[in-house]
Amino acid sequence: MKRWLAGLAAVALLSLQGCASVKSADARDPWESMNRSVYNFNDAVDTVAIKPAAQIYVNVVPSFVRTGLHNVVRNLGDVWSMANSAMQLKGQHAAESFMRVTVNTVFGLGGLLDIATEMRLERHKEDFGQTLGHWGVKPGPYVVLPILGPSTLRDGLTLPVDYQGDATRQFSDQATRNSLTAVRIVDVRASLLKTVDTVKEASLDPYSFVRDAYLQKRENDVHDGNPPSSFDYSDVDAQ
User: Which end of the chain is more exposed for a tag (fewer CB within 10 A), N or C?
Assistant: First the structure.
């Protein structure tokens, strides 16, 4: 499933690169017309499939089971975060991620229990797009990917690398890998049930709200919550 999603994202990005830029009120979003079409497509898929699955997940699966599954997928994600922290030469972050994975895997029943957080070992979520951003690679234009949602040209093109680095690929059984991917998708959507509904109800233009929030969060992620004071979120070339 993840291979298919990564391939779809790569094709979408290559297609976007071949498209002429369209006029946009936001310089960061030169492909706004196409992005809005993909956003509407994603919203339709979410409405008929992903959101209902998340609602069933929340209503049917006991909370302690959901918490355990949430902890498992986060623990697997910490492995790739550790690698990216190391690539960014963030020694403390890499060490804390290593300790989190070790503690939760060994003493937390394979990650079902998040003992590391109780031990105040901070979680540092990192991916290869953040690693490139750390070393000065600019985000490029805003892109909405089919199914996967908000991204940038830089982050979208790193998806195959993130896919290869995903710890779930270490499981030899295809059914296990697909199940973990499905759990991750539903778990993320379940955590956003109220947030997405609120954005749609409160925003005059949900697309613009999501775009601005994503780009600002992504820049904060790259700079560990401390973006340069001179950073201009309206400047597509800013870094």
Answer: N
